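Anyone? Bumping this.
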Amino acid sequence: MPGCSVRLLILLFPVLTVSWAHAEEDDYLRALEAEAERIGVPEPPRSGESADSDVAESRGDRAGFESELQKHKGTYSFYRTLLERDKAEIYKAYRDGASFAKIRKMIISRKLHR
Amino acid sequence: MTKRFVFPFLALLTMTIAAPHAEEGGELRVGGDSGFVPLTRDKPYIYVIHEGSSVKIQRIQDPNYELSGYFAKTIRKCPPFCIQPITPDPRVAVVGEVELFDFMENELRNGKGLLIDARTPSWFKKGTIPGAINIPFTELSKKPGSPEMDAMLKRFGAKPRGEVGFWDSLLERWGLSDAKYKTEKWDFTEAKELVLFCNGPACGQSPRAIRGLLAADYPADKINYYRGGMQLWELWGLTTVKPRKSAE
């Protein structure tokens, strides 16, 4: 009879281990959700700019882009001679996430073909 | 015909002559006397794309700003919210904010990397790091070989190898063919570089996600752990965003 119990335990061992792991995972998730309920949004700064930016409201400024571009002297020397509409188009591409390599190509292309 | 050669030459000449003048134009003055606190010594701010819009990341400029709310808490119940080791696996690189800025400007911008907020959606919807997508750790710790995990690996750019021929196997085993990012089942050569984060040094969500990815054979050198997470990001007064869409 004792031998039978041992065999049963051996058979059930993998099932018990998996159940225990699942229970641990569930406990962790429950604790996480409870903690998430308590989270407060950080207070906004008393003055000046907010750290919290709503995506729709976020706007980059062109002066910042041009300052960054000035670090690439050759590219900037081309850029500054472009027509205003070309500059605006290039800035828009930058805002839309174009890589610097693409920005550079656009600048050179507009300089050489207009 | 001559014009085709002369114009590029003149363009190059203009570039050479213009360079010193451009230098005189001066860079954006940050730090020091200007009063503007940049992200780093030479980086005033950066832009990232979040949900299709450009978001400017910068420090809060109010000198009296102090962190408050959940991320200002110094203690949480342990377990489960215990202080985590510096890395969940010694093979995985740990990154800080400066490395994360570089990642955002390069791999993330060029589509070669993903910034993953590994927290559950209830956390993500309260605010995240711009550029991050939400893939909860529960999705990233699925059993290796499961359809869910296979779909995730494909999403990250891994390619199923199918049947690997004898000669390919042999050449790879002998080191004559590049097998650095290849396993029997997957080719991770084009797989994206990942940066995972969660709530901060006392958060176990991204470490669990990282362990799940490693168990599925995702290359450790393509995984980075931003241990500071939301807590350190907020502490530095860096821009956060509230997602508009439901978690992915």
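Late reply, but here is one note on the structure posted above: Residues 9-31 of chain B have pLDDT under 50 and may be disordered.
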